[in-house]
Every structure is written in C-alpha cells, then in structure tokens.
Amino acid sequence: MKTPKSLFLTDDNLGAATDLYQLTMAAGYFQNNMNFPATFELFVRRLPEHRSYLISAGLEQAVHYLQHLKFSEAIINYLQKHPVFKDVGHTGPKDMGRDFFKYLRNFKFTGDVHAIPEGTLVFSNEPLLRVTAPIIETQLVETYLLSTINFQTLIASKAARVVHSARRKDVIDFGTRRAHGAQAGVLAARACFIGGCAGTSNVLAGYELGIPIVGTMAHSWVMACDTELESFQKYYSVFPDSTVLLIDTYDTLNAANLTTMVAKGIKGVRLDSGNLLELSVKVRRTLDEKGLTHVKILASGDLNEYIIDDLLKNGAPIDSFGVGTEMVTSKDAPALGGIYKLVELVKDENTIPKMKFSEDKATYPSKKQVYRRLDNDGFFTEDIVGLEGEGLTEKQLLVQAVRNGTLCYELPTINEIQKNTIENLSHLPGRYKRIKYPDSYTVAWSERLEQLKTDTEKGLRERAMG
C-alpha cells in the first residue's frame, strides 16, 4: 500500500523546489565553464488593477531558503536518471556530467543579497530583491524567490487594503480553509499580519510566528445541540472568558435575544450571513437594551475591502471583521507578476550591463537602488530608480541582507514588520490609499540610468547585428 505524502517543503527537499529549466541551464553553465558572477533583480513590472502600492513581504523565507538550499543524495539520484540529463557528461574533454552532480552535492549559496525590508511600501519597476553570485547560484534560486516574494507581497498588499477599509477596527485572517493549500495558509497568515491584521485563525502561524490566534464556533456546534440556547450555554460553560457566539445558524434576531439569556460575561457575537448592515443595527439594539453594551459584534462571510468600506460608510455598528477567501487569495487580483531578470555580468574582471529590449518587456541594466523622496511634512512624493552608488541624496531602500552567503541583517520580528507597514502607510498621502480609484504614485528613472540603458541597448543591438 502506498504511503501518503504531505508534500510540505523541508530543508531536505528545497533543492527540488524549482523549475526543471533552472537545473538544465545550471548544467549548461557548468559544462561550458560559464560560472561567472552575475546579478539578477526581482521586481514587479505592473501593479495589479485597482492597486497603487505594494507591501514588501517574504524576505525572511527567502533568506531561510538561501541559507538552507542543498541537494540531497535522493534528489541527485532522481535527477541523474531523468532523460533530460542523459547526455550531460558525454561531451567535452572530461566527464563534466559527473562533475556537475558533484557540484550539486556540495552546493551552497555563496552570494550577496540586497533587499527592501519587509513591511516597506514598494511600487512598480522597483527591485525588491537583488542577488549577486556565480550565475549558477543566481539561476537556481529564481523560482523559489519569485514564488515566496510574489505570494507574500501580494497577500500583504491585499490585507493592507482590507485593514485600511476597516477604519482602525480589527481585521482577523479567517482564510486558511480557502488558501491554496495548507502551506499557503500559513504564509498567508504571516502576510496578512504584516499587512496589518490583528490576528489569525491559523494555529500553526500562531505557534511558529507568535501571531495572536482567534476562534469562535462553527454552525456545526450549534446544530449538534438540541436547541440554539443550549449550544450557547454549553459553549459558555467551557469558555467563560472568551465566548463569541455565532448567531446566524437559524434566525439571527431570535439568536440575538437568546444570547442575552446566556450570561453577562460573553465577549461577542458573530454575524456570518445576511444583510450585515441591517442585522448589525438590530443586533446592537437588542444587546444594548439588555445591558450588554460591552458585547462586540464580529462580522464575517465573504468580506472584502469594498464591502467593509460600504458597511462602515453606512454606519454599521460592527466592531471587527473576519476576512477569509477574498484576502488570502487576493481574489480580485490573484497573482502578482513579479519577475527576476539578469542585469549585470562580470567577465574577465569587466562589468557588463545586461538588459532585454523586447516589446513591452524591456528592462533596465545594472545594479540599481531605490531612492525615496519625501516632502517637508514627511509624506512620500516620488521614488527614483537609479544606479547603485549613484549618490542621490534621497533615502535608499535596498539594504544588504546576505554577504558571501551569510546573513548580515538582523531579521525583525513579525510585530516589528507590521509596525514598519503601519509607519510606511502613515507617510503615504491619502489619495494613493483610496479603496476605489486611487492615484498612481510616481516612479522615475535617474538620468544616469536612462543614459546607461540607451548606451547598453545600442551596444547590444550592434553586436546582435554582427
């Protein structure tokens, strides 16, 4: 009988968490003696629709990956048997194929990483991450870096919009059951907290990351008891200090009346369906009339920033929101188009700028830095993407996180990252934070970078023409 597999990533199988073509290119570089230093940059070419900013996230997992990436003997044996590698080592003066797999056995990331700290506001065409290392190393790490930075940045950015719409009322991540897998659920909980959420329903995220965990009850609890009142009383008897009662299983307004018969000590009630504006008003009135003014109303059920914004604009007396599917999948914009492009090579001690100039996908060459300009009141006004070391006086966003393969950056706690998000957003003018029709933030290129792009494109075209 086959043994079930969880397919969760572990430090032992990280080497296989990539696309096949990264490994075939790595073998090609190795066999052709092309393992010269290279620099790649990870950035988002265009923001998702209706977004004016992103919240950077995922750096901690990216660094963990780089420090633990290895190829186990089992993975190497699997790769050696793959048909695509059957000719590796059968050309050239020596058995390069055997040497390549020996290289993988001893693989260790030895390069440098510069990154924008998590919780920082970022915009289109700004490098969130820059990797400099021998080109085999920079190539092999592309897939994982894109997957973790893209996903967490996407979800943190969505969560920030939801939190903003809630007007300082708590937002709780309720989305694990709708995430794209259990591992995605944990990473989504992390990203949602970075985006400003007050807690999560995900216990593993609480255990591993210290994020406050929150839970109430399900409709099944109510339905398992003979009466709704009995279900409330039994639950309260077990959790007298933290009871939040789910009141929409049968008749919401009748259940609101029943909650007043349970105990004065209940903490809250949850609405999960129906007209949340109308119901919250009536439930609030019922609770207040019975002296339960301290009892909070939590709303859940397919919420997003637009619904929450409308509810609060219309005066819904809701104290907190549990948001699931829409937030942890970023349902309205479910993928972030982050890309990872070669920008520089070093050959024979000569630094060679690299770029592509295909239509609609042109890139800028060389190592870059993001410079942020603020006005006299401390608000962000413009970002400038320029060359590393260009000497612009604006605040520089990219910091070095890894040097020669070793962490050289004090990773912040999850709470510190969330504070960074809140601080960053406080410096962003309100017109960019609008839920509907936000303005577009200005990202400019420095004159030196523009000139280098022109010169590099000219040189590449001339060489391409022979």
What separation lies between the terminal Cα atoms? 61 Å
Q: What is the arithmetic mean of pLDDT?
A: 94
Q: Could you say which overall geometry the principal axes of the C-alpha atoms support?
A: globular
Helix content: 25-40%
User: Rounded to an integer, what's the Rg over CA atoms?
Assistant: 26 Å
Unreliable stretches covering 5 or more consecutive residues: 91-96
The percent range for strand residues is 15-25%
Number of helices: 16
Q: Summarize the biggest pleated sheet.
A: 7 strands, antiparallel
| Strand arrangement, major sheet | 13-12-1-5-3-17-18
Q: Strand tally, please?
A: 19
Brief summary:
The protein has 466 residues and is of the alpha/beta class.
Describe this structure in words.
This protein is α/β, with parallel strands linked by helices and 466 residues long. The chain contains 16 helices and 19 strands. The protein has helices spanning 20-31, 59-68, 73-81, 96-105, 135-140, 142-165, 182-194, 203-209, 219-224, 228-238, 252-259, 276-289, 305-313, 325-328, 414-426, 447-464, and strands at residues 37-44, 54-55, 112-115, 121-122, 129-134, 170-173, 199-200, 244-246, 268-271, 296-299, 320-323, 338-347, 350-353, 368-374, 380-387, 395-396, 399-403, 406-407, 443-445. It has a 7-stranded antiparallel beta sheet with strand order 13-12-1-5-3-17-18. Strands 7-6-11-10-9-8 form a 6-stranded parallel beta sheet. β12 and β13 (350-353) form a beta hairpin. α6 (142-165) runs parallel beside α13. The longest helix has 24 residues, at 142-165. It starts with 19 loop residues before the first helix and ends with a helix. Mean pLDDT is 94; it is low at 91-96.
